[in-house]
Amino acid sequence: MTDGDVAAFTHLGETVRGALSERGFSTPTAPQRVAIPPLAAGKHTLVIAPTGSGKTETAMLPVFDHLLAEDGERSAATRPSSADPADRGPPEGFGVLYITPLRALNRDMRERLEWWGEYLDLEVDVRHGDTTQYQRSKQAEDPPDVLVTTPETLQAMLTGERLREALQDISHVVIDEVHELAASKRGAQLAIGLERLHDLAGEFQRIGLSATVGDPGEVGQFLSGGRPCEVREIDVGSNVDVTVHKPEVTDEDETLAGKLMTEPDTASHVRVIRDLVAEHESTLIFVNTRQTAEALGSRFIELELPIGVHHGSLSKEARIDVEDRFKAGALDGLLCTSSMELGIDVGRVDHVVQYKSPRQVTRLLQRIGRAGHSRNEVSSGTIITTRPDDTFEALAIARRARAGEVEPAAIHEGSLDVVANQIPGIVKSRGSRHMQDAYATITRAYPFRDLPEETFREVVSELSRNRILWHDEGEDRLETSGGTWQYVYANLSMIPDEETYEVHDIASGSQIGTLDERFVVNFAQPGEVFVQRGEMWRIAEIDDEEARVKVSPIEDPAGEVPSWIGQEIPVPAAVAGEVGEIRAVAEPQFDAGADAASVGRELAGRYPADEYTLTEACEQLEHQIEADSPMPTADRLVLERRGRTVVINACLGHMANETLGRTLSALLGQRAGSSVGLETDPYRIELEVPSSIATSDVLEVLEETDPDHVEAIVELGLKNSDALAFRLAQVSAKFGALKRWQNSGSGRISNERLLAALEETPMYAESVREVFHEDLDIDRASAVLEGIQSGEIDLVTHRGRTPVGQGGRSSSGKKLLAPENADASVIRTVRERLQDDRVILLCTHCQEWNVKTKVKRVPDQPECPDCGSTRIASLNPWAEEVVQAVQAETKDDEQESMTERAYRAASLVQSHGKQAVIAMAARGVGPHNAAQIINKLRENEDEFYRDILSKEREYARTQAFWD
Q1: Architecture of domain 3-234
Q2: Angle at 766 between CA 763 and CA 771, to 5 degrees
Q3: What is the rounded CA–CA span in Å between residue 923 and residue 803?
Q4: Fold for the domain defined by 416-490
Q5: pLDDT tens for residues 133-152?
Q6: What local confidence, expressed as pLDDT, does residue 540 receive?
Q7: Quick one: 564 exposed, middle or buried, by C-beta within 10 A (0-12, 13-18, 19+)?
Q8: Per-residue pLDDT tens for 773-806?
Q9: How confident is the model at residue 317 (pLDDT cuts 50, 70, 90)?
Q10: Got the DSSP string for 61-79?
Q11: Torsion angle, CA of 47/52/53/58, rounded to 10 degrees?
Q12: Are 436 and 423 in contact (CB under 8 A)?
């Protein structure tokens, strides 16, 4: 044991050191060596280390020691000064809050801390939204020494009278995964919550546990509220061994593709992941979206491999089940999203697979960092890439990870909806307050240190106007109103409320997971098939009132991949810029006659990839040079055009390209007097322009737009956007304003009316700020315009499309399930449903004969058995009123309309027979849409049913407007 090892544990008392020996901790881990000394001295401390490296014990060992301080067992050398919170003696209320962002982490932390609590005779308990009322009451009457909880539960605790008394004894607050919270509005809310706790309990020690971040000092200030904070960091990059690999298609993949009903290229991805899992004991397989997790999961289930699926839209029971099975070794691999980046304990992991580029250095370090640390081994991982963009991006991220070039945490500065959320909580918990008191509390929180008092007063005025609280302007005091209590308890969380449907197995009644309302509306109907938990399910029933979808399991290799609300992980400008630098290095080598293989070998000296992967990626660049096309690089933008499609190749990252794209779209649309289509990825801005827009117009906008005007142009373009309206609805709900507008007699408020009504309010300002913060990079886009105009950035044009320009991101995980149009099971389901549907057949000639029958019993050319006419209308089975309208001798306007519709249907059946009956049996497909479907030229019957399905989905999306 080194002197450093000895020094770390000598800061702890005998009882805790005895517990260490009992637990088998013979020497400190790396984080314990560097962090225990400042922690034991009572200093605010941020500990940055990989998941699984003993961060929890690093934080809690000195805290346990402080809780035991009344025994007087520590030496004078290690005893904290009298100002230390630990010198208060044994707490009567809570001693320590351990705050985690996930309930699953609550469960983990309790299990990990309970042994220490039992050995040291300290009570550890957990409290979150699912804690029973009995347990809550018990905690209020007899507070545990250590309470594991969530940020939202802390908000609730700050308003309870007995709990506030118990919180007065808090001496330590530990915040786990603080990097995750620092970059969110939940974190901004927690920062104010900690200052409210400070008002209640006085000074307490703040301890943050974080994954690697690019701005540790800033995260430390976030944690401490601007107070002095020690940062103790363990270098992660030097302990990471990551390889980038693009699978090569083999003969086996051709066979596998047939079995999986997919393409050989996709089959090769599945094979390589399968083989990596087989080579290791315990493998986490990270993907970037829930859709991809489900799509890949279904492939592994098809191959009967012991690989589970884990993501946030699965039920709690399903997630715990796969976590436990993985930990026990029953599963060799776990397919997961960012839900597994955080420290959920799933036992030892010896390898991590990242499917497709992780998009950010922080993501890669957090994910790869889950492997190997339980034995202080190097963390090993493989990034499986799918195409050149993906490969170059992964190479750049892997190199930057090793070099410690990590992105900063994007702290939400001055979120006004968080301010609006916290003011009523302050007034509810502390009673009538002078305005300045509340302002002082909020501005002590680091994200709000620069909040102008004038803006604060505008927020108060809005809350008062919405009757959330009362502002006594004469005394300048804030008081509760009739709506304060209800508001506070309905708004404990800053996570936006979005409708989700629970998915239940109709046979067992158990919940499988959830679906977003967007997916249910756009796709879900009885009979449809989708993937969840890697398994196929057929929808039996949808209950909109209960927001519940009942399903039954089926064996089907090609279900629809559900969509879940979730933002795409943005690729930072620095990563995209390095991809541009790789291209710039390769270009002169190709010009000098080198081929893709030799350029790839040159890159191998700097980037961790095999020869095939590097060669395959470089072939794209070789084709670019062979086509005599200019190479887009970090310092060169290439504008290419074919027809109405204009692509600006720009290695600027997601947010800068989105900003520049919106600027171009707005200004070009203004010139043309019509809208301009826009799609962006980290390396391209694709515009669909009117034919009146010349290439010279696009160049002129880039070369002459004042960079200082970008922000105003983008904000002007946002004014009528759904993206801004969506955020404005969420933000205004936190101000209590949305309810006021919805209750104004108009019911559901349109986006246009909402935007117009709230434009001059703090809600609008916050919504714009949030869009700019999360989606856009005004500074970078403005700098690019400056660079173009100063000549520092080249802007060149090319006629026609180029290999690099056409290499954009492919769509979601759906290709993993099947190639385009290989949706045989979905089409079969639609066909079977329509054939079993009932219709009314009505003769519009004699107007007497009508019969209700199933579609499959309808002859190819229906005719009336009474009069022999083929003018037979096909109607929905509930359309008896249409039959009565046709048969009525005199008709009102509504009956005339029904009769006309029946005659149009009859004309279609007379011309096209049973095909027209099938089309009109579909949901929302009347004679007009049926005629469009029937008259379309197509190669086979499947295309006919696919077009029907498309019309049904269109109707489902727009059904709300048909009234």
Answers
A1: 3-Layer(aba) Sandwich (3.40)
A2: 125
A3: 43
A4: Arc Repressor Mutant, subunit A (1.10.10)
A5: 888 888 888 999 999 999 99
A6: 83
A7: buried
A8: 988 999 999 999 999 999 999 999 999 999 999 8
A9: confident
A10: HHHHHHHTGGG--S-TTTS
A11: 50
A12: no
